[in-house]
Design brief:
3 domains, elongated, alpha/beta, Rossmann fold, five-stranded mixed sheet, 16 strands, five-stranded parallel sheet, Methyltransferase, Cobalt-precorrin-4 Transmethylase, Domain 2, Cobalt-precorrin-4 Transmethylase, domain 1, 435 residues
């Protein structure tokens, strides 16, 4: 059964709740909160004809005989009725409600499962913080001002998007109402945009931060790396423009100068731009360079960290970066950009060595590390960590490149070297690696 969702104005309207228990009291309280004039009728007191003139009726008696009578009476009089837990005898469904006045969110499972509706309400309440109430009221006032000024719908929409992308909601959440109001006033007269450098995490779309996901939903433009999952990009809003700017070895790529220039151009046009990077933008992601250049260009920038594959790759197969009694220091490096010259030094100085982007130069990288830590030191290579097609191999560092070749592991891949690789049982490691 499909339902047509509506919000009813019951202010001052006569409503009837039938029943004697806690459920009836809850239904009556909810109607009164909406401004209705509520009459509660005990089950034993109900007689046909008592519902005349009601706008809406809730039957919470749990008595099949009374349920049939109230349903028949309401149907004849064209009164909306909900017989609790009897979907076939309901002309409306009472949804689970999240209130952030003036924002109201209603959740319905079409009567299939009130429990799931309540569970979804709890999730939305955690996501939709109390700051949304004053924020919405503020946007409403600004909307009326913009309309009075004759601003076009397109111009109003751009203004609303600037507010969504700003830190006004965060200021309300922190209780800084005056600062939020001043910030909003500034946004109404400025046309400058904003850039967010956001870490998408290692691959699994559920590993992006909540803040990163929210910014994607609000973005005008998203400039994203090549390895960003389509399911991560699905967090973007329906009007968001996606631009692929990933750099892949051996393929035509967008230069770093072009990427930074594009972000500055869009921000100066008043757009909110998300630069979406795999992993963490400040760990071999050129986020620091972009932050410096955007700031020098006078662009407002926010940085949102991401889960780095340097840690997620090991975690995905049950290998910790540190472990009491086995490893208390970690070195993270890359096999690209001439960093191989320092591999032996880093490997010797740390208990756990993690090498990102290791697949292309794995033979040379493993040989360098083996010279520093010994050929029998445990190692693992994790390919496409946290993606659905993740695969891995483990073995001595002297053999790890051959094992990766034999397993045909694809890039991107992360190399992990140290006793932590053998810190979990083979059974646990295998279960995680093949999940």
């Amino acid at each position: 059964m499909r339902y047509y969702p509506v919000f009813l104005d019951l202010s001052g309207q006569p409503c009837v709740v039938l029943g004697d228990g806690e459920l009836a009291r809850e239904k009556a309280a909810g109607l009164r909160e909406a401004g209705a004039e509520v009459r509660v009728v005990a089950a034993a007191d109900y007689r046909p004809g008592m519902l005349a003139g009601a706008r809406l009726v809730v039957d919470a008696t749990d008595d099949p005989a009374i349920n049939r009578l109230t349903w028949d009476e309401c149907e004849r009089a064209a009164i909306l009725i909900n017989v609790v837990d009897r979907p076939a005898q309901c002309r409306f469904i009472a949804p689970a409600i999240v209130r952030r006045d003036p924002v109201v969110v209603a959740i319905s499972t079409s009567g299939e499962s009130p429990f799931l509706a309540a569970a979804l309400r709890a999730r939305i309440e955690r996501w939709l913080g109390t700051e949304w109430g004053p924020f919405t009221a503020l946007v409403g006032r600004i909307r009326r001002d913009l309309r009075a000024q004759g601003v076009s719908i397109a111009g109003q929409t751009r203004a609303y998007r600037r507010f969504l992308a700003s830190d006004v909601r965060q200021l309300f959440r922190a209780g800084k109402t005056d600062q939020a109001e001043r910030r909003a006033a500034l946004l109404t007269v400025t046309r400058s945009g904003r850039v967010a450098l956001v870490g998408a995490g290692p691959g699994d779309p559920e590993l992006i931060t909540v803040k990163g996901r929210d910014l994607l939903a609000d973005a005008d433009y998203v400039l994203h790396d090549a390895l960003i999952s389509p399911r991560t990009l699905a967090w973007c809003g329906p009007q968001t423009c996606l631009e692929a700017v990933g750099k892949r070895g051996g393929e035509d790529s967008t230069s770093q100068v072009e990427i930074t220039g594009r972000m500055i151009e869009l921000a100066r046009e008043g757009h909110f731009v998300v630069r979406l990077k795999g992993g963490d933008p400040f760990l071999f992601g050129r986020g620091g360079e972009e932050l410096r250049e955007l700031t020098e260009a006078g662009v407002d920038v926010v940085v949102v960290p991401g889960v780095t594959s340097a840690l997620a790759a090991g975690a995905s197969i049950g290998v910790p970066a540190t472990l009491r009694g086995a490893a208390s220091s970690v070195a993270i490096t890359t096999a690209r950009g001439g960093a191989t010259g320092r591999l032996r030094e880093l490997a010797a100085a740390s208990d756990t060595l993690i090498v990102l982007m290791a697949r292309a130069n794995l033979h040379e990288t493993a040989a360098e590390v083996a010279r520093a830590v010994g050929p029998s030191t445990p190692a693992a290579v994790v390919s496409r960590a946290t993606f659905d097609d993740e695969r891995s191999v483990t073995g001595p560092i002297a053999d790890i490149a051959r094992l990766a070749d034999a397993a045909r592991l694809a890039a991107p891949a992360t190399l992990i070297v140290g006793d932590v690789v053998n810190a979990v049982s083979a059974r646990s490691l295998g279960a995680l690696a093949t999940r």
